[in-house]
Design brief:
The complex is a heterodimer of chains A (153) and B (318). Chain A is mainly alpha-helical and 153 residues long. Chain A has 5 helices and no strands. In chain B, helix 5 packs parallel to helix 6. The chains are: A mainly alpha (153), B alpha/beta (318).
Chain lengths: 153, 318
């Protein structure tokens, strides 16, 4: 088993990393805003590509929802479901569309049960993506509240 | 026969669209819906002929939406024809073929055409269909689609917050599949669909009564059966060969080995009849489960047997 797979199957380490990252960003946010958040786009974007891609197979959708999906990237689902799984999961837990793929959402729900801080988020209704945010920094979008594209009400 | 629990309707939930399906379910009677696969033609007569055999026993008729990612007459077009002819369709909308702009427009158009019921589904991948070269959209998933329809109905606005002059009145449905893993999360996902706005649920084919009983036990424990009407999917197996084909090729459908063995041991000329018997037995068992409000009959290429199936099962007259 690879290190990244071990980390995904034991999501508390990643959860903690996520919590600390959020804490640090909130602390330095006032300074970043003085400099202007958009000036950090290049560094944050590449920082996320370098860290999240090998770990999560991140596709840089710009609206990171790992907390609500058992730290499993939902964009890796062939149907890109944000509130999965669909009803087509095969009996052996593989994907309806890609037989070589374990259903991303079967893994997401399993891993959610092992989460300590964000485990309830999977029960939230996650809104549709803002497709304008592809290939931008999800962390900056988070600070700018661009990722809270919940439908009204 | 156990007393079926009625979903808790008033005062929390006002009448959505007032169609026949909604009225039957609200009255506590056991509802029947049936599925119609639109034809590969531009001749409306084909739709009228197909619906005749279903309309005798169905409270509403589901019109599939490019089911299995195969192109047919659109669900919206066929549903409009049914309304014109006096039937009550359930318009199925999948998330594979349209984006949020088109879907919101279709929901308004459906309401304007007199369609009262909508079933929001994710949709099969393009890979299983006759045009695997097509681009899959999936701008929504089924829960986001449900929530969008509910926002349009309850708040009279689009997702962009622009006002809709007359909000669409729609009875909203969603699908559930208790027979596909992860089993213990299916009731939890059902809870999400209810929170997103589902008024009724239709399940995938039920051939495993024990699994359905387990699912419904969890549903009752979460009190979901009082918040949504649940119709269980049923359908007669045509032959051992078709049962094996479904088992192998239709992800999400689970047929127990015992059922396959039972129909395989029957002489080929009697297999169709045995498939009907199995379905009738299942319907009897399904009716006894607390929290189930009806059945949804899917008899692809056997539509002419739906009347016989429902009348033999004793559901009608109610």
């Amino acid at each position: 088993m690879s290190i990244s797979r071990w980390l995904l199957d034991h999501p508390r380490v990643l959860e903690r990393a996520y919590l600390y990252t959020e804490w640090v960003l909130r602390k330095i946010e006032p300074l970043m805003r003085k400099i202007e958040l958009s000036r950090f786009e290049f560094f944050f974007r590449w920082g996320e590509i370098i860290t999240k891609r090998p770990l999560f197979d991140c596709r840089m959708c710009g609206v990171c929802n790992l907390r609500g999906t058992g730290m499993t990237c939902p964009v890796t689902c062939p149907k890109e479901l944000r509130n999965g799984p669909c009803g087509g999961v095969r009996q052996d837990g593989t994907c309806e569309v890609d037989l070589d793929l374990d259903c991303v959402w079967v893994l997401a729900w399993e891993r959610t049960e092992r989460m300590r801080w964000y485990g309830d988020r999977v029960f939230m209704i996650h809104p549709p993506l803002d497709h304008r945010l592809w290939d931008t920094s999800a962390w900056l979008n988070f600070l700018e509240d661009k990722d809270c594209c919940a439908p009204p009400g | 026969m156990t007393t079926r629990s009625r979903a808790d309707l008033s005062p929390d939930k006002p009448i959505r669209a007032g169609g026949r399906l909604e009225r039957v379910l609200r009255s506590g009677r056991f509802a029947v819906t049936a599925e119609l696969a639109p034809a590969d033609t531009s001749d409306p007569q084909a739709i009228y002929e197909r619906v005749l055999v279903l309309s005798e026993v169905a409270d509403a008729i589901n019109v599939t939406d490019a089911s299995g990612a195969h192109v047919h007459m659109s669900s919206l077009g066929a549903s409009a024809l049914l309304v014109r002819a006096g039937y009550e369709p359930v318009l199925q909308i999948n998330c594979r073929d349209r984006n949020r702009i088109a879907i919101q427009g279709d929901l308004l158009g459906a309401a304007a055409l007199g369609i009262k019921n909508v079933l929001c589904i994710t949709g099969d991948g393009v890979n299983v269909g006759d045009q695997p070269d097509a681009k899959p959209v999936f701008d929504f998933d089924s829960i986001q689609l449900l929530q969008t329809a509910e926002i349009m109905r309850e708040q009279g606005m689009f997702l962009s917050r622009r006002t809709i002059e007359v909000a669409p009145r729609l009875f909203l449905g969603a699908a559930s599949n208790p027979f596909s893993p992860p089993y213990d999360t299916r009731p939890k996902r059902l809870a999400k669909k209810i929170a997103a706005g589902a008024d009724f649920i239709q399940t995938q084919y039920c051939f495993d009564i024990h699994r359905l009983e387990g699912f419904m036990a969890d549903v009752r424990e979460m009190n979901l059966h009082r918040k949504v009407f649940i119709l269980v999917g049923v359908g007669p197996l045509r032959s051992a060969k078709s049962a094996l084909w479904m088992q192998k090729n239709v992800p999400g459908v689970y047929i127990p080995d015992s059922t396959i063995q039972r129909i395989s041991k029957t002489p080929p000329s009697k297999q169709s009849e045995e498939g009907m018997k199995i379905c009738i037995e299942l319907i009897h068992q399904i009716r006894e489960i607390e929290g189930v409000s009806g059945v949804h009959v899917m008899a692809y290429r056997q539509e002419e047997r739906v009347t016989e199936l429902i009348l033999s099962s004793g559901i009608l007259p109610r």
